[in-house]
Amino acid sequence: MPVTRTQIITRGLANRCPNCGGRTLFKAGTLLELDRSCRDCGLKLEKDEGFFLGAMAINYGVTCVGLLTPVAALWYLGALSGKVAIGLVLGLGLIAPVALYRSSRSWQLMLYYYFLPQHLPANRRELSGLEDENV
């Protein structure tokens, strides 16, 4: 059964394997070390060297645009004092990237397979099965 784009998004947001839905993205006992492949289905998670630069960009974007910009806007509008705003920016700037590390890696996989679902092994088997029937 092929993996749909909706399943890819759901699995990406839940930090699961985009191919099988297994909870196997990170090595057991570690918080930040990604497995080379899914332990359930064998999907290669680290595509090429530098593949997860997109995850860094996602993490940066969520941290800056989603968290730090609202704090700056609240300070500018006078809702926050300068000291509180600086404290929030420093705290969020240090904590958010670490807290979002795992999710940003999963979101990178989600985006990759959302736009290229035919690269998932589950979808390749389905396509190869259809090709065999048409021969």
SSE order and pairing:
Blueprint: H1 5-13, H2 53-76, H3 82-99, H4 101-115, H5 121-134
Helix pairs in contact: 1-4, 2-3, 2-4
Can you characterise this structure?
Helix 2 (53-76) runs antiparallel to helix 3 (82-99). The model has no long low-confidence stretch (mean pLDDT 88). The two termini are 20 Å apart. The chain is 59% helix and 0% strand. The protein has one domain (5-134). By secondary structure, it is mainly α. The protein has helices at residues 5-13, 53-76, 82-99, 101-115, 121-134.
Low-confidence stretches: none
Structural class computed from helices and strand pairing: mainly alpha
Number of strands: 0
Number of helices: 5
Overall pLDDT score: 88
Q: Give the helix proportion (percent range).
A: 55-70%
Query: How many domains in all?
Result: 1
The separation of the N and C termini measures 20 Å
- Topology pattern, helix = H, strand = E: HHHHH
- Categorize the overall geometry: elongated
Biggest sheet details: none
Gyration radius, to the nearest Å?
19 Å
Share of residues in strands: under 5%
Question: Could you give a short description of this structure?
Answer:
The chain is mainly α. 59% of the residues lie in helices and 0% in strands. It has one domain (5-134).
